[in-house]
Design a protein that fits this description.
It is a single chain. Strand 2, helix 3 and strand 3 form a beta-alpha-beta unit. Helix 2 runs parallel beside helix 3. The chain starts with a strand and ends in a 7-residue tail after the last helix. By secondary structure, it is of the alpha/beta class. The strands form two sheets. Strands 3-2-1-4-9-6-10 form a seven-stranded mixed sheet, sandwiched between helices. A five-stranded mixed sheet has the order 5-11-7-8-12. The chain is built from eight helices and twelve strands. It is globular, with a radius of gyration of 18 Å.
Length: 272
Amino acid sequence: MRVIGICRFSYPAQGGFKRMHDSIEDREAYLYDPARMELRFRHFECLTLPSIAAQQNPDFTFLIVVGESLPKPYRDRLHDLTAAVPQIRVVAKPPMRHRSAMQLAIKEELGENEDESIQFRLDDDDAVAVGFTRSLRWSAKASRTMRKKWRTVAFEYNRGYSVALSDQGITAEEVQTPFWACGLAVLFRPNDPRTVMNYGHHKLHLDMPMISNPTPKMYLRSKHDDNDSGANFAPRSLQPLTDTDRTFFKRQFNVDEDQVKAVFSAPPVPAD
């Protein structure tokens, strides 16, 4: 069984963003703005990367899709950050529709596609628990008999945290929400032409059976000024971490508040 995650890192898609632009050049100018890129890199470095690097079951692939036009300083910075994580592959694509680019990256990674695959998507400013890929494999094994006649099945973990990062550290709010992308994965049979990117995560329950696990705290979803979801994601009760929270975040997500303070206090990395 293959486990494949996919992440869009400032990829200049045709569509796929709630913010609209008149041309690819306008979208690239927006995406590659130095202040925006610094914000994305800081969240990626403090949330997404450490949680992926610390997965307890290392048998998975994590694809990071970027544009072929990603400026060299950012491309080099991304490669430097991810070089020590063998599961990560940075994949460059020309501008095309968002879902088409992501689907193509997954299908290329699957190759002949002779095994079942579990596929998940993760934003470049969110995190999953270090037991995420291990739990997905366990869920697939435990549900084997039940899902014999199902073409696909989704696994959902609907409990986690909303978080905000700054040079002061982390503020957080425990949440339980249905169908957030950062807590979902889909299992596909061999040779299925579809991927997790063929479905809107908010509507997965309309297309396939779902196995929902409300027990583990499985994700961190960040809130900041560049959230594409905008007003649709507006946590209101974020609180500073307690000592117990800090210990739990480190153990559960490999997210370290001291690292957050250091990264967000550092001067911006030059863009050229």
